[in-house]
Amino acid sequence: MSSEEYRANDDLNEELRPEAEDVAEAALVDAEAAEGQPAEANLEEDISLNLKLERAEAQAEDYLESLQRERASFQNYKKRIEAERGAQAERIRGDVLLRLLPVLDDFYRATDAVPDDQRNGWYEGVLLIQRKLERFLEEQGVSEIQALGERFDPNFHEAVGVDTDSDAAPETITEVLQRGYRQKDRVLRPALVRVAP
User: What is the pLDDT of residues 80-131, one digit of tens each?
Assistant: First the structure.
């Protein structure tokens, strides 16, 4: 039981304590008064006390049911808040990762632009940095959206042109102008592509 639940129980006990003390005191006074009375009066007093006891028990049962409903409502609230926090954290993480994608694009452009005869130690160092960034993104659940040769899907691809010179099947992606990425089920950025007519 959490500290909030203990506090809720203590609060409920504090609310019920004065009423329970009143009922007990009334019963004690009634019992003392009934000692010197005839049997008929004692019987009436017993019936009266039993009625008071039944009412007090019914009220205690109502309070218990109310407390249980409030406790269940609080547990549902806690679960909902935790789920909302998790979703918000995912959105924030996705937004940060989205801002890293242009950096990765620049690495691809830079390494693709280096001629084969100038690929030396400096080039290898840049490739290592690029691979570290790719590994980091993979660890965060980011993966590249496959596009080249695939059928165009508007959920993952954004067509920016039609490739009229292609012999590919209709709606087949013939060129990727910018890589697309997704994080788990969320598309961070669609792939910019050209499509066969």
Answer: 999 999 989 888 988 899 999 999 999 999 888 888 888 888 888 889 999 9
Instruction: Extract the tokens encoding 194.
Output: 């050209």
Give every residue of the chain whose pLDDT is below 50, as ranges: none
Alpha-carbon distance of 106 to 178, in angstroms, equals: 11
Domain 143-197: which topology?
Nucleotide Exchange Factor Grpe; Chain A, domain 2 (2.30.22)
Residue in this structure with the two tokens 């019914």, named with its chain if needed: 58
SS3 state of residue 187:
strand
Measured from the Cβ of residue 171, the count of other Cβ atoms closer than 10 Å reads 13
CB 35 within 8 A of CB 53: no
Residues 6+ positions from 171 with CB-CB distance below 8 Å: 151, 152, 195, 196
Task: Find out whether 105 and 181 touch, Cβ atoms under 8 Å.
Answer: no
Q: Is the pTM of this model over 0.70?
A: no
- List the chain domain ranges: 3-90, 143-197
Instruction: Evaluate whether 104 touches 119 at the Cβ level (below 8 Å).
Output: no
Distance from C-alpha of 152 to C-alpha of 156, rounded to nearest angstrom? 8
